[in-house]
Amino acid sequence: MTGEPLVQHEDRYFDADPATRRAARTIYDDVRDLPLVCPHGHVEAELLASDAPFPEPTALLITPDHYIYRMMYSRGVPMESLGIPARDGTVVETDPRRIWQTFGENYYLFRGTPTAAWLDYELFELFGIREKLGAESAGRIYDRIRETLSTPEYRPRALFDRFNIEVLTTTDKATDTLGQHRAIRSSGWGGVVNPCFRPDAVFRIASPAWRTEIEELSLAAGRDVAGYSGFISAIEERRTFFKSMGATSSDHAIVEPFTQRLSDGRAEEIFQRALRGQSTSVDQRAFEGHMLMESARMSAEDGLVMQIHSGSFRDHNTRVHERFGADRGGDIPMATEFTRNLHALLAAYGNDPRLTLVLFTLDESAYSRELAPLAGHYPAVRLGPAWWFNDSVEGMTRFRRSITETAGIYNTAGFNDDTRAFCSIPARHDLSRRVDANWLGGLVARHTVDLADARSMARALAYDLARETYKLDSGSVSQRERTAGVNRTESAA
Measured between alpha carbons, how far is 144 from 385 in angstroms, rounded to an integer? Predict the structure, then answer.
């Protein structure tokens, strides 16, 4: 028995205007099969290091996806019913089939959202599902996906190849040993999986966990980080190690993109206060602002592309955070100012051809007011794609319309999927390529650009700009070179 049919229309997300739609089809056909370049995301390296079969549909499609948690919770579905472990010992659902059934019963909540666009693509294209997910069909679809996941063709590395992923970048703590990355490179498999250096935890000096992070940094760097100068040296050494393992970028997730240069003496004073457990929020703001300056300096020297993701009030729902921990869908965007906050950094490094600074925001009001003018002037600045809450059909379209007339497309970083959900990667790239094709089709229909230029622009947005921005042509190395690097690293250790 089957339910209502699931259809993926060939013209989905294209404009109803015939001229725009015709041009969009032509443009999309040029880019639909290009390899996927994934220069920023949160897929765990362990997934591809172990290459273990996915256990079952719930662990694959629901558990990693905070978009699902937040929507269902907003409509009164308890987190416990989704199997989210509770810190307070509350009994939660552990049967993955029952969790999937709850998801199916509430799938209608996602109508018109990017989550539905991605999941419908995955169900249709990846798993061959031809009926809509709902209360009545949930069990059948669960069984179909579970059966499929047991086959060798659905192991992570096989899917990586099937998705035509050219390079995938993870996001890794500054203290990470990158053991999973070493395992990937030593395995002989040809997939390119790069780490990304993310030092947030060792910059947040007012965090209760900071002392533990510093101890881990000391261990990873092989030195006692007992002062500010030793801290800077340890960070530089870790960046060098990440580069030896294929990293081409660093990432900084912050609330406010505030930058300022502290004297070494002032930085030492703040660092010592942190070691004594006496840091204040004022100290942390000053230290993080200084370390963004230092990170820009290091990037200019070592070539790692510097990314700043700002403007999210993390774990805004205190009750959910206390009961279920971080990253459970409770993050909320904030208004964000860039022009004044980044002035110190850009005055020092914005004209330096060695620096590439990729800026992301959740505050759409900053697109045309601040970010496009900054990227349209400073040689170091690139704009990251519409991010997180803005990674949607309308959000991506608003982004292009807001920034292109001031910054053009060639001061943007192309597309990245920024996902934890591995199987959503091709769905996210396909949606982006369709939205960009439609936007470009509108330019063609209005005779703003001709079709030849639009096709060239589409390729840049889908493929070329990501490779160029993240230095993947120079940063990616052959499997043989990677293996040799791993052997040298292990010999040194």
Answer: 35
